[in-house]
Specification:
Elements: E1 4-13, E2 16-26, E3 29-33, H1 40-47, E4 55-60, E5 64-65, H2 69-73, E6 76-79, H3 91-101, H4 106-119, H5 135-147, E7 153-157, H6 165-178, E8 183-188, H7 191-197, E9 200-205, E10 208-214, H8 215-220, E11 226-231, H9 233-238, E12 243-249, E13 252-258, H10 273-282
Parallel strand pairs: 3-8, 3-9, 6-7, 7-8
Antiparallel strand pairs: 1-2, 1-4, 4-5, 9-10, 11-13, 12-13
Length: about 280
């Protein structure tokens, strides 16, 4: 699989440094997490060659440089968050048009599209017009167009935003399957998307990379630091800055929260990616 290496990548807009000397590797199925304003969108725009970085280097397998945009684009399939196509064309017509724009000859394109429609479970919808598709179907068409030409790197921005629960589950499973034989980068603020589909995680906060590594490494950061118990509303309010989640049951809340940082007591609650993400992004606030 391809390995994307970033070295001291920075970007500034109007005197505000949006990305600050990012150095890390993207490999396997990689999830990029971060709150709004963390710099995720800017980094995605740089990686998809839509804008240049101000400083730093990006390479694929230490060979192809982001300075060579045409070479990089041949490696990338991209599904943006706001994805749209020609509304009065059919699914098959749209994919064929995009394949030809990518330089794929028509006979090869037709064979590849037939295979992708099967893989995306869109075969029976290929004659539907784009305007007739549900949100989930449209996202699957988006993945199909991103995979035209079989690029080794797939970049997906906010993959499940706007999808209902059933489509969200289906789309996550699809991304997991696609990520088995290529490098896939998923940028999202939905922690569950990353927990289900990715093996590696990077977390951005205010333009800085505050974590990168495997999911297990991330969860280990909060092992022994989480408690879950029933509390009264007043007890829950008293620790609200440490609360992860709460669920009302009768006159009490089932509260999941971080133990006091001054406490040496260890707990046996199994941590999640969300626990660790909140722990890291709340630090210093």
């Amino acid at each position: 699989m391809e390995r994307i290496h970033l070295k001291e990548v920075s970007k500034t807009y109007k005197d505000k440094q949006v990305l600050k000397n990012l150095t890390f590797d993207i490999q396997g199925s990689f999830g990029l997490l971060g709150p709004n304003g963390a710099g995720k969108t800017t980094l995605m725009r740089i990686l998809t060659t839509l804008i240049p970085a101000d400083t730093g280097e990006i390479t694929i397998n230490d060979q192809v440089s982001w300075d060579n945009q045409n070479a990089v684009r041949s490696y990338i399939g991209y599904l943006p968050q706001h994805f749209s196509l020609y509304k009065n064309m059919t699914v098959n017509e749209c994919l064929l048009h995009l394949a030809i724009l990518k330089g794929i000859k028509k006979p090869e394109a037709e064979a590849e599209i037939a295979s992708l429609l099967q893989e995306m479970n869109l075969q029976e919808h290929k004659k539907k017009k784009i305007k007739q598709l549900s949100g989930g179907m449209l996202r699957r068409v988006g993945i199909a167009q991103a995979l035209l030409g079989n690029p080794p790197l797939l970049i997906v921005d906010e993959p499940t935003v706007g999808l209902d629960i059933e489509e969200r589950v289906r789309f996550r499973n699809l991304l997991r399957k696609i990520g088995r034989n290529r490098t896939i980068l998923i940028s999202t603020h939905i922690v569950e998307d990353v927990e289900i589909t990715c093996d590696y995680i990077g977390i951005l906060k205010q333009g800085e990379l505050i974590f990168t590594g495997r999911k297990e490494e991330l969860k280990s950061l909060v092992k022994g630091k989480i408690r879950e118990e029933y509390l009264t509303p007043d007890e829950a309010d008293a620790i609200q800055n440490r609360v992860i989640s709460l669920k009302q049951e009768n006159d009490k809340y089932l509260v999941r929260y971080f133990v006091d940082e001054q406490s040496e007591e260890q707990t046996d609650v199994s941590p999640t990616i969300e626990d660790a993400y909140l722990f890291l992004t709340r630090k210093g606030e």
